[in-house]
Amino acid sequence: MAFLGQSCLYDGISWNSHLSMAFLKAVRMVWELPDVMRIAYAFVLVMLCWMALWSFGVSGILAFHIPNGGQWWALLIFSVSLFWTGAVLSNTVHVIVSGMVFLVLIHGGQAAASMPPKPLLKSLQYAVTTSFGSICYGSLFTAAIRTLRWEIRGIRSKIGNNECLLCCVDFLFHIVETLVRFFNKYAYVQIAINGQSFNRSARDAWELFQSTGVEALVAYDCSGAVLLMSTILGGLITGTCTGVWTYFKQTDKAIMVGSTSMLMGMILVGVTVVVVESAVTSIYICYAEDPRLIQRWDPDFFDQMSEALHQRLQYRSARAHQILNSRLDQLPNTSSI
What is its biological role (predicted)? Predict the structure, then answer.
């Protein structure tokens, strides 16, 4: 019990410190790769051009008064196309950044003599040719499943003692967790490194985490949630400002235009913040593949990750032992028979 108390204290203080350090290290790495930021800005510009073209189609829908709610259905179809395009562009940037981060870690720095010439150009060419099919395929599922996963986690924490409802939510959560194993952001890192298909990359990434124990770190990583909240906040600001402006121009179109603008804002912010998320995921993959890569890059950070992983594995082992003992205590005593 004393160990469990120490582990809970560790979860509340040192664990948050580790997460903050991982996030800050990723930001620092991206900041030291200005070429990566330029490619992200270029993709934001591409997304803006696509949005400008996409807006003409939406304007046509709004101009024609389609009866029986047809406007909403047409707008939904356009929104799905916009969402998928944004996911494809974001994941393309994800693969490019992951390839660059892996090269930096494996060669010991961007200025290393062993770095291949024009690594960013090669990573970009690889992402938009060989891996583009896997990127488009994975983009159909990853963002939606990750969002659903966080929503279900929030519901689980608020259920309380309703055993029936908790059982149903746990079953749904198990299904989503299974889907996450096959449609996860770490698959794109494996695509960038090994050039495999999306399904195989997702499976290999999950098996790598399971076999090395790094899954204990990944399971409690909240950097993706922080970036997701930043994306949602950007979309809310965009949608609110546009909705208020539309309200004074055409009151009946305010909700439709505001919701569409919110989606567009979320996609633009998502293309930008995916650079940091890619660096975080690449650090975890590289740590699982070969911890010496992280140790050579930043020894202090390597020590922190190793200590965090050791603590998490100890905590899980203690909890499993405690649960097993409690279940054994509940079994009927048959020694007197």
Answer: Choline transporter.
